[in-house]
């Protein structure tokens, strides 16, 4: 009987171990373009950032969003990629069902003075526009959700990944 309990506990530990946001990006097909960007722009900052994110909602740019962003003439690499990832990481959990007609201004993780002059983090407006949840940036770029994915085993208190149609453009 003890052996059976140990086997069950071992199985539970194996299947409930926490995964990081980086691992989620690496295994989500709708984010394969983002994964490619991360692979070609490997940096300790980005790896640590995505591996240790906690209590967040991540507005992840879909493959089409990144393609559209790059077609606009801006390549998402290096510092701009890191800043965009920080801007896409919102403090706290905001499932699409909690986004109402009343705007919520949510602090992002972006505090780099080269991209923002807001010390608490550049805010993103979350609002429901006629039944469609939207994320609006400081320069009024509107992104809508393609899907919301809940990861109960992420290493964070509010594990949300919202895949968006349009990649954020940083406010000038």
Textual characterization of the structure:
The protein is α+β, with helices and mostly antiparallel strands and 172 residues long. The chain has one domain: FAS1 domain. The protein has helices at residues 2-16, 21-27, 32-40, 44-52, 63-71, 78-88, and strands at residues 56-61, 89-91, 104-107, 123-129, 132-136, 142-150, 160-164. Strands 2-1-7-6-5-4-3 form a seven-stranded mixed β-sheet. β5 (132-136) and β6 form a beta hairpin. The relative contact order is 0.19. Residues 1-17 and 150-159 have low confidence and may be disordered.
Overall outline: globular
The residue fraction in helices comes out at 25-40%
Task: Please write the CATH class name.
Answer: Mainly Beta
Beta-sheet strand percentage? 15-25%
Task: Give the number of DSSP strands.
Answer: 7
Query: CATH architecture, please?
Result: Roll
Strand order of the largest sheet: 2-1-7-6-5-4-3
Please name the fourth-level CATH homologous superfamily. FAS1 domain
The name CATH uses for the topology is: FAS1 domain
Largest sheet: 7 strands, mixed
Q: State the oligomer.
A: single chain
